[in-house]
Design goal:
This protein is mainly β. Helix content is 13%, strand content 50%. The structure holds copper (II) ion.
């Protein structure tokens, strides 16, 4: 069919262009929040930051309308004990990927303004150096929905 071939052609043409335009930017992919038990005052958020540019990008902070405040935490293991250290900024070097993931760096969402169950979408605003902002949506997931995790009952 003609329409089909045409749309295929458009797709083929658009794809390399969008990759090209991503060339000078920082992108955030797969942001999600772990559902917390009722009454919990903090939730953890995870995401992947991709720096497709030739410049260093610096994340200075994160905010969300659903929470009082958001902190960036790094997990450090010392004497077999894991502890979280608040970070004032996090760097994504040129061409590199920064992962916020369970057991590693994460966002700490503090004091939710309402109960946020799985399926809910949370708005996150990443504040970069030069006051540039990057918005993303993070889906709340149950522990059993964690990527790469099998759920057995
Ligand atoms: Cu933390």
């Amino acid at each position: 069919m003609k329409i089909f071939t045409l749309s295929m052609l458009i797709c083929i043409l658009i794809l390399p262009i969008s990759i090209l335009y991503a060339g000078d930017s920082l992108s955030v992919v797969d942001a999600w929040v772990l559902e917390a038990p009722p009454g919990m005052k903090v939730m953890a958020a995870y995401m992947t930051l991709k720096n497709n540019s030739d410049n260093v990008h610096e994340l200075k902070g994160v905010s969300s309308p659903e929470f009082e405040r958001v902190e960036m935490h790094r997990t450090i293991i010392e004497n077999e004990l894991a502890s979280m250290v608040k970070q004032d900024s996090m760097t994504v070097n040129a061409g590199e990927v920064l992962k916020f993931e369970p057991g590693g760096s994460h966002l700490m969402l503090i004091n939710p303004k309402k109960i946020l169950k799985s399926g809910y979408e949370i708005d996150l605003t990443l504040i970069l150096k030069n006051e540039k902002k990057l918005n993303t949506k993070a889906h709340v997931r149950k522990h059993s929905e964690m990527t790469g995790m099998e759920h057995h009952n």
